[in-house]
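Good morning,

Attaching, inline, the backbone tokens for the sequence recovery test we're adding to the shared suite. The designed sequence is right after.
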């Protein structure tokens, strides 16, 4: 079997599963279908065929996705079949480790020859009560430059967000959690250029644990470079998110949008937050701008088309 050029030639199975194959990912339907062809055990083969059939998808979801069962754990559950898998099929059976993308959280004007990222270390428990850890984030967090040279393979590509060329144009940035990363870079850049008119909506669970870059933001507020509006969802009985703060500060948002032609930027988790923020912005347009619901929706779409409203979200 021909190996990808970046791998040692020949390559050990140990090297494959340590550096190349993603044995910690949740396996897909095709994984079980391929496994079934190699199975020498009747009971295991029947189960694998069920998981790869159209009728068995609900059971497969319960087995794999709900508990976030890993490829390695699935192989462990089918020991007779796993023993029968020819090594040359490992590259077809298990996907390669995918590159992870992070927003750069620093400006070259503030930190020359340096790239900083803001990363949450993924760690949680599932219904199996087994701890799950993010592959890339756990590895990065384990590195210690004080114990020797650390080498991280990376590449840099151009970001999608475009900030206004006019120094007098204000920006409204909405970045809950690690979504604040690209805005830290933008704010550092704008502050280094002497630009004011920076408004940041930041949200996290608890002020004492998740208030990323708190000291930096507060210093910029004191110096007059930043308007900071925060939402700490778990610090009170009722949960408060950035969309609630947008509604509460609708006068400020409308002032910046209508009279000063502000640009709006949104970054963060792609689940429910972007839709909730869009609704909050439409609410501002209705309550402060007197637009109807359909007009507010059309206006927000027009802002997106003209790149006055830009989003960068991830799942």
């Amino acid at each position: 079997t021909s190996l990808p050029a970046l791998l040692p030639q020949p390559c050990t199975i140990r090297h494959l599963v340590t550096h190349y194959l993603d044995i910690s990912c949740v396996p897909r339907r095709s994984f079980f279908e391929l496994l079934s062809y190699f199975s020498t055990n009747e009971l295991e083969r029947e189960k694998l065929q069920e998981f790869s059939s159209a009728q068995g998808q609900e059971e497969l979801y319960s087995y794999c996705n709900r508990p976030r069962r890993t490829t390695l754990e699935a192989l462990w559950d089918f020991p007779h079949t796993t023993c029968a898998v020819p090594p040359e099929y490992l590259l077809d059976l298990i996907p390669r480790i995918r590159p992870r993308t992070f927003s750069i959280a620093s400006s070259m004007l503030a930190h020359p020859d340096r790239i900083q990222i803001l990363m949450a270390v993924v760690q949680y428990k599932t219904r199996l009560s087994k701890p799950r850890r993010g592959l890339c984030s756990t590895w990065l967090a384990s590195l210690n430059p004080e114990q020797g040279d650390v080498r991280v393979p990376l590449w840099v590509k151009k970001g999608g967000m475009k900030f206004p060329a006019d120094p007098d144009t204000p920006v409204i940035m909405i970045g809950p959690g690690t979504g604040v990363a690209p805005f830290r870079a933008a704010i550092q850049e704008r502050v280094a250029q002497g630009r004011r008119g920076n408004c940041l909506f930041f949200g996290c669970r608890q002020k004492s644990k998740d208030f990323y870059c708190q000291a930096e933001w507060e210093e910029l507020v004191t110096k007059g470079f930043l308007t900071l509006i925060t939402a700490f969802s778990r610090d009170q009985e009722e949960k408060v998110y950035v969309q609630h703060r947008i509604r509460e500060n609708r006068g400020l948002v409308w002032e910046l949008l209508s009279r000063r032609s502000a640009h709006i930027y949104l970054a963060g988790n792609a689940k429910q937050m972007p839709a909730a923020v869009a609704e909050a912005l439409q609410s501002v347009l209705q309550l402060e701008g007197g637009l109807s619901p359909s007009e507010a929706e059309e206006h927000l779409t027009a802002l997106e088309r003209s790149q006055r409203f830009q989003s960068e979200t991830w799942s």
